[in-house]
Amino acid sequence: MPAQITDRRNALDWLLQVAYTTARLFLKNGLQNHAAATAFYFMLSATPLLLLLSYAVQGLARLAETSVPATMLLAALYDQLHLETLTEAGFIPRHAQLAAGGVGLLTLALSSRGLVHSMHKAHGVIFPVEGRHRAVLSWTLPWVIIPIVFLLLGLAAAMQAILGFFAQHELLGAGRAVLFQAVNLALALAIAWALVFAAYWRLPLRPPPVRQTALVALLSALTLFALFALFGEFFKVEQYRAVYGALGGVVFVLIGAYFACVIFYAWAQCLFAVSKVDVAALEKLFLGGAGTGAGKLEGYVFGRAGRLLNKYGRTLEPNEVVITEGDASQTAYFLYSGRVGLYKRIDNEEKKLGTLEEGELFGEMAYLLGERRTATVTAEVETVVLALPPELLEELMRYSAPLSRRIIATLCQRLMRMNLATQG
Q1: Number of C-alpha atoms within 13 angstroms, CB side, residue 114?
Q2: Among residues 171, 201, 154, which one has the least CA distance to residue 56?
Q3: Does the pLDDT value for residue 144 go beyond 90?
Q4: 241 SS3 class
Q5: What span, in angstroms and rounded, lies between the C-alpha atoms of 337 and 321?
Q6: Are the C-beta atoms of residues 274 and 200 closer than 8 Å to each other?
Q7: Concatenated DSSP letters for 110-163?
Q8: Of all helices (H) and strands (E), which one includes residue 378?
Q9: For the chain, give me the number of helices (H) and strands (E)?
Q10: Strand 361-362's sheet: what is its strand order?
């Protein structure tokens, strides 16, 4: 039972630390501003597509005069996508001209690049790594990707409209209405998940792990569905037009696009936080709140070290050797509790260089200098250490400037002590 309680507490600590790190990085990176820019370019990209939708509806209406399937499809689109409401609100023109369509396509091409560029910039802030996207791909891909994405969304919406229309009017049998509604919802969720997953996995220069990306993309898609359901329930287009006048529909869509982008970037930041939560917790543990701007909330979130000890901890008995001089290993250690002694062989005699107390980091020289171990480290009492593999130490130094400065200062002091001991 105590083990189960400990596991639950560690899981709760992990969730709190991920949520706190996500919120802190979201505000620090100013992602709300990136969301506003993305929503603006989304509106510019979506508006020309409404002209194309108008062409499609007009063509389908002419075809419906002689075709029963076209008539059913047109009725489904009007019924499920509320095309009449969108037309009355001014989103879809009743009679689109070819010249306007040409201007719309030009606007689509230019705004598509702006949309992808704003998403690239946001992902560059969320997933900070060195490197650049290729200039040719950066200029050409948006003109291809965005129209394809909107085309897929349009096809998905049409399929949803048909399925919803059949289910609502029981055209294929009363007993199958629930099945068609379930298929309709699953199809929409699958398309939304696939698009979000592709953005989370391919836009960063260094793709995150696939399984984590798939899970976070699913949570993001579900949150977006919840947002759209709330907007559809409480913010009707007619109500907005009554309050804001002719521009009410535009205001409604722009607000919805902004909040959708906020959710999209918040979950992307969460995906990054999941991979950095151990690094953030270790930083707080190593620095003890110094130089990190720790407050009461941060102290509560990162106050317990049980999760880190369970994952990285190692208990040493008295006189147990943790590092041997001349060894090729590069694992670094944080002295959580206890005491260790440092020894170095000088003139065929092992000489004690000093003692390290709890709160000290040791063993990092081998990795930073790319050399073998320069001293032997032995536990003097029962000691608990956190073992840090080289890649984790590298992440720590990249993530925390205060920790990097402390490691460099400690390294300089240790080299000075070793030189003095060697000369003596």
Answers
A1: 18
A2: 154
A3: no
A4: helix
A5: 16
A6: no
A7: HHHHHHHHHHHHHHHHHS--S----HHHHHHHHHHHHHHHHHHHHHHHHHHHHH
A8: strand 376-379
A9: 15, 8
A10: 313-316, 383-388, 332-337, 361-362
Classify residue 119 as exposed, middle or buried by CB count within 10 Å of its CB (0-12, 13-18, 19+). buried
Using CA atoms, how far apart are residues 142 and 159, in angstroms rounded to an integer?
A: 25
CB atoms within 10 A of CB 233: 8
pLDDT in tens, 174-214: 555 566 667 767 877 888 898 899 889 888 878 889 999 99
Domain regions of the chain by residue span: 2-281, 305-423
Q: What CA–CA distance (Å, rounded) separates 258 from 34?
A: 10
pLDDT value of residue 292: 47
Phi/psi at 94 (5° precision): -75, -35
What would the two tokens of residue 70 be? 């076209």
Q: Which of 342, 365, 355 is nearest to 415 (CA)?
A: 365
What does the alpha-carbon distance between residue 270 and residue 279 come to, in Å, rounded to a whole number?
A: 14
Architecture per CATH, domain 305-423, reads as Sandwich (2.60)
Most confident listed range (170-184, 266-280, 410-424):
266-280
Task: Return the SS3 of 99.
Answer: helix
Residue type at position 211: R
Residue 351: phi and psi, rounded to 5, are -115, 140
From residue 413, alpha-carbon distances to 202, 354, 407, 417 in Å are: 44, 12, 10, 6
Residue with structure tokens 């709300």?
32
Distances (CA, A) of 87 to 53, 94, 107, 310, 415: 11, 7, 21, 60, 75
State how far the Cα of 32 lies from the Cα of 126, in Å rounded to an integer: 12
pLDDT digits (tens, 9 = 90+) for 316-354: 999 999 999 989 889 999 999 999 998 988 878 888 888
- Single out the residue of 398, 397, 368 nearest to residue 128, CA to CA: 398
Q: What pLDDT band is residue 17 in, cutting at 50, 70 and 90?
A: very high
Q: What is the pLDDT of residue 129?
A: 72
Q: Which residues 6+ apart lie within 8 Å of 131 measured at CB?
A: 205, 206
Tokens of 17: 């630390």
User: What DSSP line would sit under 14-51, residue for residue?
Assistant: HHHHHHHHHHHHHHHTTHHHHHHHHHHHHHHHHHHHHH
Q: How far is CA 86 from CA 92, 94, 97, 253, in A?
A: 6, 10, 18, 11
